[in-house]
Amino acid sequence: MPTSYPSAAEQYGQRLFELRTRRGLRVRDLEERTRDIVDARIAELRLRPETADLMPAELDDLAGKPVSKSAISRIEKGKPPSVEASPLLDEALGAGGTLEILAGAARAEPTGHLPVSPPYFVGRESELAQLGRLSSQSPDPELATVIVVGGLPGVGKSALALHWAHGMYARFDLVLYAGLGGYTTGNPATHAEILADLLRGLGIEHDEVPASESQREADLREHLRRRGQQVLVLLDNARDSQQVVRLLASLAGTTVVVTSRTELSGLVINHAARTIRLDTLSDQEAWSLAADIIADERVDAEPDAVAQLVDMCASLPLAILVAAERIAADPDISIGEHVAALTDVERRLELLDIDESAGVRGAFEWSYRTLRAETGRMFRLLSLYPRPWVTARAASALAGVTVDKGLRLLDDLAQAHLLHQVTADSFHFHDLLRVYAAEQADLQPEVERRDAIVRLVTWFHYTANAASWALTPMRDHHVHLPATPHSVTPLTFSGFTAAFSWCAAELSSLPAVARLGIDHGLYFETWRMAIDLFDYLVHSRPTELWIILMELAVEAAEKDGDTARLAEAQEKLAEGYLRGGRIDDAYDLDARAVRTASPHGPSRTLGFALLGLGNTARTAGDLTEAFALTRSALATFTAAGTRIGEAMGHIALGSVYRDMALHDLAIEHGEKAVGMFAAVGDQHGVAVALLPLAQTYLASGKAMRALGTCGEAQAAYAATADRWGRADALGGKAHVLDRLGDAQAAVQCLREALPLLRGHDDEKADRVVAFLTDIESRYSGSS
Question: Is 243 helix (H, G, I), strand (E, B) or coil?
Fold first, then answer.
C-alpha cells in the first residue's frame, strides 16, 4: 500500500472539513447542531410511553452525546470518529449517510496484515532511523534478520513498531503481524495460534489454515520460500526468547521485528538480534503528544498545565494518551482544573503505597472514574475474557447487552484509549490496562464477575449448538437446548458456510473459554460446547485442537460426575487420538468408554466406542476380533435407534467383509450405508460411505463401477468443506484409473489432490507424490 495514500480516518476528516466549510459553519456551530439534534431526540423519547419514565442518563444513552468542539477538531485532523459521532455529524451536515459509511472504515482500517496505525505518534526520530538502518541489510535466505524493540510497559514499543511498519510497504513486498500476548493476565498466544495469524496474513482463510503445528510451520516456510519476496514480520509483545525462537525456523529470509518488555538476550546471543531500547518521551515530545490530542487553542492558552500533565504521567506515552483524551473529551473544564483532579488521584495512590508507577495508574484511574457507568462496567468485565483480544459479539455477551450497544461501549473505550480497535468488530486490551481493569473488577461484588462469566460461557455454548445444527442438520445426534435463562443472545446461522466460518474464526478462543467454564464450575456447558463442536472438528480436522477440547470435555464430565457424558467425551477424544496417530491411546480410551457407557445400555456412545475398537483390531490385522466388535457395534446402534450410527456400522462391517474377501456381503453393507445417508440428505455421510464401497467394487473386479462411485464421492465431498475427503476421493479415483491402465488420467487426479493436502497433511501428500512418481515411471517406461 503506497504510503502517499491518505488513511480512511484522514479521508473522513477531509470530508468533514469540506462539508462544514461549504456550509459556512465554524467548529462551534457544528457542535451546537449536534447538541440540538440530541436535545430533539431526548424530547421525542420523553413523549413515547415506553420511554417516558426513563432516567436522564438512560435517555442520554438512547439519544447519544453531542460531539464536542474539541472532538470535531481532532476528527478533522485525522482521528477516527466514534460510533455515536458519525451519525450525528452526518445528520448535522445533511451528508446523506456518506459520513457514516466512511466512519466504518476510519474506525478500523488495518491493512491486509497489520492492525491500524496508532492515531497519535510523535518523535522517536532516532529509533525510527535505527529501524531503517537495521532493516536495510539484505537478509540471509537461510536465516531471519531479527530486531528487538525493548522498553518499559506503556513506553510505546508497539506504537513505534506499528507506525514504522505502516510506512514500510514501499520497501517490503509483504508485511505480516502476530500478537504474541506475552504479558497479559491470561496465557500468552500459543505457537500454533501465532503461526495461524501469520498464515492468515498471507491471505489464507480461517478454514484453510492447517490443523497441526508442524503443518503450519511447513506451510509458512513453503509460502515464504515460493513467494521469494522481501517480507517484514512484526511479532508484538513477546514474553521471552523461546516464544520467538520457535518461529524463526519458519521465517528464514525475512526481517523480523520483535517488541518485548524483557531483554530477550537469547535472541541476541544465539540469533544475532540487534536491539533498540525505548526510553520515555522527551519533555518536548511528551508535550507535543498531549497537544495533538487536546485542541490546539486550549493547549496554547495553558502551556504550563500541559507541561505539568506530562510530568505527572512520567512522559510515558500510554499514560499521556489516556489522560489527554480525558481532558479533550471535557472541553468545558480548563486543563489546569483537570490536572488538579489528576493530582488528587495520584496523591491518593501514593498514600496507598502502590508502586513507583502511581502516575501511570493515576492516569488510568482518573480516566476510568469519569466513564459512564455502563462503559466502566464493560471495561471491568473485559478483563475476565480469557484472551487479550475479543470480538464485539463475545464482549456484548460478556456484558449482557445487545451487539449494537456493546459496539458503542467498546467504541467509547477505544476513543478513551482504554482499548485498541483492531478490526471493525475486534478489540485488543493493552496488558497494563487489562491488569488495571482486572483490579477494578476484583473490587466489585463477586456476583457481577460470576454472572458475566456465566453469560460468556453460555453464549459460546448456545452458539456452538446453533453451529452444529447448521453444519449437519440431518444428523440425529443434535440436541435442542432450552431457552437460555441469561441475558445473552446466541448467534444463529443461515447455513453451513456461516456456521463453519464462525467456528474457524473463534477457534483460538474456544479452549480458553472451555477452561474458564471448568474453573467456574460450568461443567455441563463446557462439556456440551465441546461435543457440539465435533461436527466442525470432523470437517476441518484441527487434530491438536480436537484433542485439547475433548480432553477438557472429559475433565468437565469427570468433575460433574456424569458417567454418560464422560463416556461420550472419552469416545470422541479417542477419535481425536486416532486421527493424531496415537493409536494405543485411542484404543485405551475407547476401551474405557465401553466400560463407562455399558451400564447405561445401548447408546450411540457405546456403539462408536465399540466401532473404534473394531477399527483398531482391523488395522492390526485381527479380522476375527474386528468382525465381532463391529457386529456388536452395529447391533448397539440399531438397539439405540441411531440411524447415523447404524450407517457408520454398515460401512465398517462392509470394510471387514472386504478384507475377508466376502465381496457380496461387503457390497450389501456398503450400499446400505450409502442409501441410509442419502435418505436423509447427508451429503458428507454419502461421501464417507461411497469411498470404501468403491474400494469394495474394485476388489471384486468391478472397476468401472468403482470409478463411477469415486466420482460420486468426489462430487459429494465438493459440497462440503472437507478437503481431505476430496483428496481421498481423487486418490481413490487414481487407483481405479491406474488399474484400468489410464495412467494419464490417474496422474491428473493425483495432481489435483496434491494442492488439497500440501500444507495440511504433508505425510499424506508425500504418499500421493510417491504414487504419482510410480505411475509416471511405469508410464514412461512402457512408452
Answer: helix
